[in-house]
Amino acid sequence: MPLYLAMDFGGTKLACGLTESANGMIHSHIRRASPSNAIDSMLLMLAMAREAIGGRDALSISGVGISFGGPVDERRERARLSHHVPGWEDYPLVDEVVRALGLPTVMDNDANLQCLGEWRYGAGQGTKDMLYVNVGTGIGGGLILGGQLRRGAHGLAGEVGHTVVDPNGPVCTCGKRGCVESLAAGPAIARSAREFLASRPQDGSWLVADVGGDPSKITAEAVFRCAAEGDSLCRLVVARAARYLGIGIANAAALVDPELIVVGGGVAKAGPLLFIPLVGAAKEQAAPLDPEMLSIVPGSLLDDANILGAVALAEQEFGG
Amino acid sequence: MPLYLAMDFGGTKLACGLTESANGMIHSHIRRASPSNAIDSMLLMLAMAREAIGGRDALSISGVGISFGGPVDERRERARLSHHVPGWEDYPLVDEVVRALGLPTVMDNDANLQCLGEWRYGAGQGTKDMLYVNVGTGIGGGLILGGQLRRGAHGLAGEVGHTVVDPNGPVCTCGKRGCVESLAAGPAIARSAREFLASRPQDGSWLVADVGGDPSKITAEAVFRCAAEGDSLCRLVVARAARYLGIGIANAAALVDPELIVVGGGVAKAGPLLFIPLVGAAKEQAAPLDPEMLSIVPGSLLDDANILGAVALAEQEFGG
Prior knowledge:
2 copies of one chain form a homodimer.
Chain A: E1 3-9, E2 13-20, E3 26-33, H1 38-53, E4 61-68, H2 93-101, E5 105-109, H3 110-121, E6 130-135, E7 139-145, E8 148-149, H4 180-184, H5 186-199, H6 205-210, H7 220-228, H8 232-256, E9 260-264, H9 272-284, E10 296-298, H10 305-318
Parallel strand pairs in A: 1-4, 4-5, 6-9, 9-10
Antiparallel strand pairs in A: 1-2, 2-3, 6-7, 7-8
């Protein structure tokens, strides 16, 4: 039973797990809140790794896979930067882990690894061609084509979140207007609710009450909570986000015609409330594919997608 | 020097050529206007094929490649239908050619073969990953990934033309709203010019004169002609089409991150007039890719892309 160590450097949390690659079973699963800078995050992660390894002989561990929550360099040896934690600029993450643990180590960004994780251990098992979309604070994605993670000519493939679906839409974090991320990620859902509320204050009493009377406290979670309870303003906001996400997914399907589309991530955890209108919108926009050719399922790994993707990557690299 | 016979069943013309696969040199190049139904087209094409073969021994020809101007079935043996010529529904094109000529035969749709042709003999030579976009009466496309034509799980990959870039845009031939094709193909350019003209008749005297005073006679060609002569209304119309096409191309690049993007087809023949603003718009929308990562070039095969793609396909299938 080959064992791999998986590390997940997220924007708000660190996770580490010693994992059996054959079945994806995670032993010694350790999670901590992320320190506010790169050096402390690194030191904490190495301590977590040693704790996860415990009394085992390092020789019993086949390698380390790292999921990094931000762009990495083309050779996948360095973190380029984190949008959430300072100090990661050009950080030689792989080298540092090799030096500290003496184990062969590989890295990729979190969206690619969530994709690889869902494909190897989750909702995408057994497919050859899969599109993965992660909906959370941002919208990331990944592509498996012919049983291989497609990284692209510059390591930047799979960016469903930064495809434009409304050139007159809001300004995105990337600087463009009307990217899927600017219309359907968590912050976009919260902003959209605040805008609806400003134009139709009489419809928003439920949501306003939910956030203690302070619209600036509206989050995507609050919108989903109120939508689940039947609030019509919040349902409208969710339907709007689902529609844009559906267009983005249908566009991606028109380009690569995947066998399966897997949607994961924090906002996706809202469940059927987002998922059902999302599938409806994507199928409505499926042409020239027949709607039934669009097979869309929720991710099944939830918070473990990064860890399991990191294991899958390490297994590909260092497995027999 | 292996020789292949290539056939191109287009909506308005038929072409046939005996071609050296090593260098793409087309011998005995024959073109005719397409008859108005499938049976007559087939008979004429077979006569053209026999003329192209001439006195040669059939054994000196390694195979036949067919480019069909419409969707084909998943096994690529039958035409599904032509949008321009009746009678092609479910037509066993490959079998008929095998029976008539006694040569091994393969087929694919024209967009895939234009892509393959540009990659093997044209602007895309030497690349591993290439996106091809064909701008004409419709907007088609194809993808080469890892040196292979990507057909997709249902044979429908590469449909850049039917990605939505403005959900409030005009209705497309596919039934959706705001597809790239509905905003930037030839008919969309003509329609857009008529609309500008209706709202700003004082600006359109040049274009109106060009079409003999009859706005219903406006074509994309007329718009490009007047734009080339400096007409400001036509320049605006071209810039608008280029912008939407640029967004569609940048979206595709965000998803697959290709090494090279090749733009071909009839409308693309308008040259720098369309190409320069198109490249500008695509680079403006490149994020998260750096603009210089978007490498966009015009196709170099022009009207021979279909024939040369058909040869490349036959060579892949039947070559040594």
